[in-house]
């Protein structure tokens, strides 16, 4: 069943065309929520990512975060086919029929009264709907370039969040074409009973198996990049502290002493500090250039791995399904 809905707009006295114009103040860009992953083309083994589109909070009749998450959790409940059921002969068509009935009900009760419509699309159809230009000759999504590793700080988080990095890359590829999503919530609804916990476990394990190869390659590249730059980063950080300290001393002497009353010694001190600052800034620029050159060499050495990761992630991106919400 659908969650209890917010009040629908009252429009008994308006003709249909005026109702649609009034409700046009809904969302400016489509909402596209990706499936968490997709196992070798089997579409009913992964749920849609648990998130909330903030755009739904600013429409004429808002859909709250809790109401939307209840809808999403219920959709995932009817969408995800448990591998054990498939093994004993349960037809994926049954999942399809359940999903279609649920989506019809959700549209009638939750989205259409707000001038919206939700549908489940392949990546190719989603890309066509939002008008994305970053596609190959067959109309498939081409992911944007991955973010560069800028420093060795936060390395532990980077290694731990390889899967999240792929999701971020996927959504960055759609930036400007779809509404933003907020993932600041638990990844999964808390199961209500033991059966639900059992049903939720295999799909989660399957997702981890699917993502392991790209994640392992990403970690290997990340480790090599960090090892190549960590000494440069330490020196750059130290130079940054010295530059800041030098600037603070120059500023202090310049502000606290009137230029007309400075002694020759004080003038020399300020001059020496400025000369030291210039030298530190030149050294910093040189250190950054050396770091970038070394990093480029590492990337060239791992070019094959970069290509493999990029190919795998593009395959995953074009294999998943999307929950798309757009104006009706």
Automatic annotation (TrEMBL):
Its name, as the record gives it, is Uncharacterized protein
Instruction: Identify the species of origin.
Output: Aureobasidium pullulans
């Amino acid at each position: 069943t659908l969650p209890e809905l917010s009040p629908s707009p009252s429009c008994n006295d308006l003709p249909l065309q005026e109702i649609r114009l009034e409700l046009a103040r809904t969302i400016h860009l489509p909402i596209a929520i990706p499936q968490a992953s997709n196992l070798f083309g089997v579409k009913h083994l992964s749920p849609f990512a648990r998130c909330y589109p903030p755009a739904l909070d600013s429409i004429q009749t808002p859909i709250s975060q809790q109401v939307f998450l209840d809808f999403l959790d219920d959709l995932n409940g009817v969408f995800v086919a448990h591998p054990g059921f498939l093994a004993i002969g349960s037809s994926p068509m049954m999942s399809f029929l359940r999903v279609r009935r649920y989506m019809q009900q959700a549209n009638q009760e939750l989205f259409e009264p707000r001038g919206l419509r939700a549908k489940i699309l392949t990546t190719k159809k989603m890309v066509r709907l939002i008008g994305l230009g970053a596609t190959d000759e067959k109309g498939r999504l081409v992911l944007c370039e991955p973010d560069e590793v800028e420093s060795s700080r936060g390395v532990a988080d980077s290694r731990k969040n390889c899967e999240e990095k792929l999701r971020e890359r996927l959504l960055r590829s759609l930036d400007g074409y779809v509404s933003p999503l907020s993932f600041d919530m638990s990844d999964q609804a808390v199961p209500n009973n033991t059966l639900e916990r059992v049903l939720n476990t295999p799909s989660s394990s399957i997702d981890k198996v699917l993502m392991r190869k790209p994640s392992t390659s990403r970690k290997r590249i990340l480790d090599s990049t960090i090892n190549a730059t960590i000494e440069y980063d330490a020196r750059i950080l130290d130079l940054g502290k010295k530059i800041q300290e030098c600037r603070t001393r120059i500023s202090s002497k310049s502000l606290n002493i009137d230029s007309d009353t400075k002694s020759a010694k004080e003038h020399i001190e300020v001059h020496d500090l400025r000369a030291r600052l210039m030298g530190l800034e030149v050294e910093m620029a040189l250190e950054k250039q050396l770091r970038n050159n070394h990093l480029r060499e590492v990337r060239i050495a791992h070019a094959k791995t970069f290509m493999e990761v990029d190919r795998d992630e593009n395959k995953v991106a074009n294999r998943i399904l999307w929950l798309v919400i757009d104006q009706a």
